[in-house]
Design a protein that fits this description.
The chain has 226 residues and is an alpha/beta fold. 41% of the residues lie in helices and 17% in strands. It is globular and about 50 Å long. The structure holds pyridoxal-5'-phosphate.
């Protein structure tokens, strides 16, 4: 199927229930992104800063770019002027740098706290207690140029949907706990970014508000570029 047909099939499937589709275009050429854009897609996700910057410069300005991969503090400056949302905030230090660079551009950058839900500890992300510590800190209270909009998680790569379902449920519970404790009066804290090509239906079932789909839209990536 074409990229346009894939997008339209996914949109039909997820309906108008308020789940946002992020087209993960990492490793894909400009033409493929343009094709998705021409089909009406405006939200794209990338996981490497350099690749993201190169693509952003060449593609339409009204694209909403999301960074979904690990972000090093020394690279924040390259994306601070245009990024719509950073899904991968995993430390106070990183958040402070995002705030500093956002201030330089006189803007507020939307962020998600990446929480660890998978069993493998190779994955990035904070555990719940680290997130709580961050949100309680005086340093966090001083940051005026970032806005925390919710949480993000990546489930364990497994064929067992029971494990995936439990991890998504856990992220939803983490979200709810943080919401009740720190963001009760903040309507901006509403996003749960979970679900990829292999597990997005389950993720929506468990309360996802943002799904990040690469191969379902653009076809499989080569193993090397994963
Ligand atoms: C690559 C990637 C995706 C998309 O993966 P697919 O399985 O191709 O849908 C989603 N989220 C993150 C963080 C990724 O790195």
């Amino acid at each position: 199927m074409s990229i346009a047909a894939n997008i339209s099939a996914i949109k039909k499937e997820i309906g108008n229930g308020g789940v946002k589709l992020i087209a993960v275009s990492k490793t894909k050429p400009l033409e493929s992104i343009q094709e998705a854009y021409d089909a009406g897609q405006r939200v794209f996700g990338e996981n490497m800063v350099q690749e993201l910057v190169e693509k952003q410069e060449k593609l339409p300005e009204d694209i909403e770019w999301h960074l979904i991969g690990h972000l090093q503090t020394n690279k924040v400056k390259y994306i601070a002027g245009f990024i719509s949302m950073i899904h991968s905030v995993d430390s106070l230090k990183l958040l402070q740098e995002i705030n500093k660079q956002a201030l330089k551009h006189n803007r507020v950058i939307d962020c998600l706290l990446q929480l660890e839900i998978a069993d493998e500890d190779t994955k990035f992300g904070m555990d719940l207690s680290e997130a709580i510590e961050l949100l309680r800190s005086e340093e966090f209270a001083e940051l005026k140029n970032i806005r925390i909009c919710g949480v993000m998680g990546i489930a364990t790569l497994t064929d067992n949907p029971k494990v995936t379902a439990e991890e998504f449920y856990e992220l939803k519970m983490f979200f709810q706990g943080l919401k009740d404790t720190f963001f009760r009066k903040d309507p901006a804290f509403k996003e749960i970014s979970m679900g990829m090509s292999g597990d997005y239906k389950l993720a929506i079932d468990k309360g996802s508000t943002m799904i990040r789909l690469g191969s379902t839209i653009f076809g499989t990536r080569t193993a090397k570029s994963k």
